[in-house]
Amino acid sequence: MVVLTQLVFLGLPWLTWNGRPALLFDLEARRFYVFAWILWPQDLIYLVGLLVAAALALFLFTAVAGRLWCGYACPQTVYTEMFLAIERWTEGDRHARMRLDAAPWGSGKLARKIAKHLLWGTLAVITGVSFVGYFTPMRELLHALATFSLGPWETFWIAFYAFATYANAGWLREQICKTMCPYARFQSALIDSDSLIIAYDSGRGEPRGARSRQADPRTLGLGDCVDCTLCVQVCPTGIDIRHGLQNECIGCAACIDACHTVMDKLGYARGLIRYTTARGLGTGGGWRGMLEHLLRPRVVAYSVLLIGTLAAIAVSLTGRPSVAVDALRDRGTLAALSAAGVENTYQLLITNRTERTIGFTVSASGLPQLHVDSEVPSHWLPAAAQSRVPVRLVLPHAQAAQLAPGAYPVTFTVHADAETVHASATFLLQR
Ligand code: SF4
Ligand code: SF4
Fold first, then answer.
1. Homologous superfamily of the 323-429 domain (CATH)
2. 255 lines ligand 1 (CB under 6 A)
3. Residue 376, pLDDT above cutoff 60
4. CA-nearest residue, atom 5 of ligand 1
5. Are the C-beta atoms of 401 and 342 separated by less than 8 Å?
6. Which atom of ligand 2 is nearest to the CA of 255?
7. Greater confidence, 300 or 319?
8. pLDDT digits (tens, 9 = 90+) for 131-189
9. Residue nearest to ligand 1 atom 7, measured at CA
């Protein structure tokens, strides 16, 4: 999962689509490029939809599989794992590190510490650059980096994100999970007795105690736990899983791996610490029993809501017109009289959501003989561009004379390529 998540995170900013970055959040231009789609501030609803889908997915996966996200995909876990690997590589295993820390300062200790922090810093800077690569095209960013011409915001965010990575994964580590992450606080409300958890089988392990490899634990009155505390030593959040499920457990399964090696050495069956459910642990049921309880009301409800939300986003995105139109009244003038009739002035905010230049014409309806009197009858809009088009609507005097003063709803119709898009507005009549 470390490799997979890093491939995704580091690789996405390099992908191209139609000659531009496939994924780019261009905040300055207020445009988000997401593969084939170009999203504008008016498309904020899709972001809301995605956030709702992400929350529902988190609820669903937690109900089914506990803290799978925390243990396998959360950036905090992934980066801590990478920083730990660097630490092991430069300073050795836990015992070697404790010896190194207790040893007086000398050239060897200094070299190991400097190497560790240099590698941590390099990884943190790569992470910071990659993060900013989602907001500035990666190739431009690297060119600016190489020529020392980075902008102030890019410099700030690279430094900020690199520092956050270095501090969180190098120093704070599990403290983030234990004291700052809100997910740990409310996960207990999301799981039930059929959710997958990592648990110690106390019925099999207790009473715990040391014994020789040849001894039969039953004749000694012991369970299978030899009380080696390896499961506690490898736990990134420093808890003892033998005390039961705790908020601090991030579901990383490091204790399972550690206990498996102990069981293998003793010739005992694996699974003293294992993936199970609270119900499975109580009844001693295996995977089959757990799967039988998979389809529960909350799992079905979350699944239906998640699929519905994703389907609605997909249908809306694929079916949305290539042009978006907003009609804004000219606030400077309410209504004016001219030789042609009563005039109202508007600004049409027209967005070209495609990556090709499109031509469009504007017409209006809603009142008899209402017509557009703009100077340019048809317009061109460059690819992925937004334009404010001034438009004057005219209602002939004879027609206006038959209507009472007031505000009348009218509709602008924009014909672009083979599509027709409407925008509502009001037409003011005054005496
Ligand atoms: S108790 Fe086990 S699964 Fe939970 S955080 Fe510690 S090592 Fe990971
Ligand atoms: S690693 Fe296994 S045997 Fe060792 S203390 Fe933990 S549960 Fe007991």
1. Immunoglobulins (2.60.40.10)
2. yes
3. no
4. 249
5. no
6. 1
7. 300
8. 999 999 999 999 999 999 999 999 999 999 999 999 999 999 888 888 888 887 888 78
9. 235
Write down the mean pLDDT value for the chain.
91
Candidate from 249, 256, 272, 276 with most ligand 1 atoms within 8 A of CB, to mutate: 249
Given this model, what pLDDT does residue 375 score?
Answer: 60
Strand partners, 198: 275
Residue 417 has pLDDT above 80, yes or no: no
Question: 105-127 as b/e, with b when 16 or more CB fall inside 10 Å?
Answer: eeeeeeebeeebeebbeebbbeb
Nearest ligand to the CA of 242 is: 2
104-131 confidence digits (pLDDT tens) = 999 999 999 999 999 999 999 999 999 9
Q: Is the CB of 229 under 6 A from ligand 2?
A: yes
Report the separation in Å between the CA atom of 141 and the middle of ligand 1, taken as the mean of its atom positions: 39
Q: Which amino acid residue places its CA nearest to atom 4 of ligand 2?
A: 228
CATH 2.60.40.10 residue ranges of the chain are 323-429
| CA–centroid distance for 386 within its chain | 28
Find the 72 Cα to ligand 2 centroid distance in Å: 22
Coil/strand/helix, residue 211 = coil
The gap between the terminal CA atoms of the chain, to the nearest Å, is 72
pLDDT of residue 195: 92
Strand partners, 410: 425
Which residue's CA lies nearest to atom 8 of ligand 1? 252
Task: Establish whether residue 245 lines the binding site of ligand 1, counting it when its CB lies within 6 angstroms of any ligand atom.
Answer: no
